[in-house]
Amino acid sequence: MKKILIALHGDEVSPRFDQTGEAWIGTIHDGAIMRRRNVVLPQASSEGLCHLAVTEGVDAIVCGGIEDEFYQYLHWKRITVYDNVIGPMEQVAQAYMEGSLAAGAVFTEGEQP
Predict the structure, then answer these.
(1) d(CA 13, CA 50)
(2) With a threshold of 0.85, does the pTM exceed it?
(3) Torsion 95-60-35-44 (CA) sign
(4) InterPro entries, from UniProt (predicted)?
(5) CATH topology of domain 2-98
(6) Nearest 5°: phi and psi at 35?
(7) Are 89 and 62 in contact (CB under 8 A)?
(8) Which of 12, 17, 34, 91 would staple 107 via disulfide (CB 3.0–4.6 Å)?
(9) How is the chain split into domains, by residue range?
């Protein structure tokens, strides 16, 4: 079972980690989403998002741009960071479940990278 956090801006991956005010957290087992929920942060901040990831015990984070300081912190916490990802949340989550998600992936509506 894996847990993934996707930094959101609407229904898309947030372009900036530090400007993220909402996150989607999904629990994935055997290629299917077993549980999903959205979490709205009290304010957008990198620290708040890192805290959420650590307390939720996520295995991976998907985001757009992220400062190196926070990237290194999450890596130190053994959380895989897929950064510079662009696209709709549903397609990104599907790519993660299929094992095809990579840092820098760009998804357009209805296409795979």
Answers:
(1) 16
(2) yes
(3) negative
(4) Di-Nase_FeMo-co_biosynth (IPR003731), DiNase_FeMo-co_biosyn_sf (IPR036105)
(5) Nucleotidyltransferase; domain 5 (3.30.420)
(6) -150, 140
(7) no
(8) 91
(9) 2-98
4 within 8 A of 60, measured Cβ to Cβ: yes
Mean pLDDT of the chain: 94
List Cβ neighbours of 2 (8 Å cut-off, separation of 6 or more): 27, 28, 29, 59, 60
CB-based burial label for 45 (10 Å; 0-12, 13-18, 19+): middle
SS3 content of the chain, % helix, strand, coil (to 5): 30, 35, 35
Is residue 30 exposed (0-12), middle (13-18) or buried (19+ Cβ within 10 Å)?
exposed
Q: What is the mean pLDDT of residues 17-30?
A: 94
* Residues near 86 by beta carbon (within 8 Å), at least 6 away in sequence: 12, 13, 15, 64, 105, 106, 107
